[in-house]
Amino acid sequence: MTQRMLLRALALIAVLWAVTWAADVSGQWRAEYTSPDGQTRQSTFTFKVDGETLTGTVASAMGEAKISDGKVSGDQITFTVIRDFGGNEVKFSYKGKVSGDEIKLAVTANFGGEDRTFEMTAKRQK
Predict the structure, then answer these.
(1) Which of 32, 41, 77, 102 sits in a 20 to 30 Å window from 17, CA-based?
(2) How far is CA 13 from CA 19, 33, 61, 62, 79, in A?
(3) What is the rounded average pLDDT for all residues in the chain?
């Protein structure tokens, strides 16, 4: 019984450690990037973190969209954004790594049955 309690305690400590050391991405971040169509674009991310849950919005020339399915685990973040393109919903999946005041993001979206991936670097706005 003692060994089982020790293992449970260690598991709890590991979970608490992961939550404690999750990257602090709360706040506003801005990225300039080249989209798959070759255009230079800008997006502003407003992140809110509660434990390992990431919420917020992404604003661009297309307007503002809500972040869903957001997670923070250590220095890794993931989230999705649904955008409307002429009546067609397109899901953008973001995966990123936080390093200080920068987040390197890989973004994947499906346009016309074809996945397109591009990268961007978001910088914390102070």
Answers:
(1) 102
(2) 10, 40, 44, 43, 26
(3) 85
CA 61 to chain centre: 19
Say how many domains are in the chain: 1
For the stretch 65-119, pLDDT in tens is 999 999 999 999 999 999 988 888 889 999 999 999 999 999 998 877 888 899 9
What is the CATH number for 96?
Answer: 2.40.128.20
Contact 97, 91 (CB under 8 A): no
Rounding to the nearest 10 degrees, give the CA dihedral for residues 22, 100, 29, 25. Answer: 10
Domain residue limits at 76: 23-124
For the whole model, what pTM was predicted? 0.79
